[in-house]
Specification:
This protein is 30% helix and 9% strand. The chain is built from 2 helices and 2 strands; from the N terminus they run βαβα. It is elongated. By secondary structure, it is an alpha+beta fold.
């Protein structure tokens, strides 16, 4: 038997009202990559990658349902690929961190995203 964990909890105790900080970019593993990516073990800040992956038939069917529910005329989804792109992912993570930091600076008016 094998164990496939879905969550990894890393925590830091904060004392005396200290504020939490986001994870460092130089961690030996990448926390933010989706677990279903084949490149999940890589650090996108250090190792560049851009891979196109064929997805399972059930995902193609999910996209077909999305197309059926949103398009006026019938369409047929022929192919679905997942793109694992380190540069694009890093831009997204940096944007998310900047947004979180901006929200923290504004106080607790708005909850920061995960």
């Amino acid at each position: 038997d094998q164990v496939y964990p879905e969550y990894l909890v890393i925590y830091e105790r904060l004392h005396g009202g200290a504020r939490a900080s986001p994870p460092r970019e130089d961690l030996p593993f990448q926390l933010e990559l989706p677990l279903y990516w084949k490149t999940v073990g890589k650090n996108p800040y250090k190792e560049g990658f851009r891979k196109h992956r064929v997805v399972k038939q059930e995902i193609v069917e999910l996209f077909q349902r999305l197309a059926d529910g949103t398009c006026r005329n019938p369409v047929k989804v022929l192919k679905v690929r997942r793109i694992e792109d380190s540069a694009l992912w890093c831009r997204y993570i940096n944007w998310k961190r900047n947004l979180s930091q901006g929200l923290l600076e504004e106080g607790d008016k708005i909850k920061a995203p995960n």
